UniProtKB/TrEMBL annotation:
Coiled coil: none annotated. The gene is cysC. GO terms for biological process: hydrogen sulfide biosynthetic process; sulfate assimilation. GO terms for molecular function: adenylylsulfate kinase activity; ATP binding. Pfam families: APS_kinase (PF01583). The lineage of its organism: Bacteria, Pseudomonadati, Pseudomonadota, Gammaproteobacteria, Enterobacterales. ATP binds at residues 36-43. It catalyses: adenosine 5'-phosphosulfate + ATP = 3'-phosphoadenylyl sulfate + ADP + H(+). This is Adenylyl-sulfate kinase. It is an enzyme of class 2 (transferase).
């Protein structure tokens, strides 16, 4: 956006603040960012956690990478530049949802450290939980529900993360989960983290 256009944009202050929304919700908002290889179990874990939070009266929402690609980011390719823009847009949506007092779950490969750091800075460190779903690529590839690895191996998908393109392992994630563990067990670990950080008022789900 050019500076000329920016001059015509004035931020609208809301009467209802994030703090007021969090008080009404009886929990705080935060973004939980699930990163890992395709097929690692990111979406399955995030979806299970979302159901658990919902069942316990928590306002949460899951932003899944494929779903976002189907709408908000449908104009983007898988080039390096467009992948970065995809991550940026998801971060901006998460930022708005934080202000709405919602616990935002994001499931997206986000393979590069600088991408995840960009989102952390955008949202603020206290608003960002980085969850690394550390599942061996052999297992991810054996699952391959979308047949992406198979297509990448024969050259039909260029620059596929884990095959032709590198995945940079998070250096200091807030939690490391194994995508082969029971979903409920992984969810319990995250519930405990949220409770320990005073985000939600309970440490065990009903």
């Amino acid at each position: 956006m050019s500076n000329n256009f920016k001059k015509n944009i004035i931020w609208q202050k809301h009467s209802i603040t994030r703090v007021k929304r969090e008080k009404k919700n009886a929990h705080k908002s935060i973004t939980i960012w699930f990163t890992g290889l395709s097929g690692s179990g990111k979406s399955s874990i995030a979806n299970f956690l979302d159901k658990t939070l919902f069942k316990n009266g928590i306002n949460s929402y899951l932003l899944d990478g494929d779903n976002v690609r189907s709408g908000l980011c449908s104009d983007l390719s898988f080039s390096v530049v467009d992948r970065e823009e995809n991550i940026r847009r998801i971060g901006e949506v998460a930022k708005i949802m934080l202000d709405a007092g919602i616990i935002v779950l994001v499931s997206v490969i986000s393979p590069y450290e600088y991408q995840r750091e960009m989102i952390c800075k955008m949202l603020g460190r206290k608003n960002f939980l980085e969850i690394f779903v550390d599942t061996p690529i052999s297992i991810c590839e054996s699952r391959d529900p979308k047949k992406l690895y198979k297509r990448a191996r024969i050259g039909k998908i260029p620059d596929f993360t884990g095959v032709q393109s590198e995945y940079e392992i998070p250096q200091n994630p807030d939690a490391i989960l194994n995508g082969t563990d029971v979903l409920e067990d992984n969810s319990k670990k995250l519930i405990k983290i949220l409770h320990d950080r005073s985000i939600i008022p309970f440490s065990r789900s009903n």
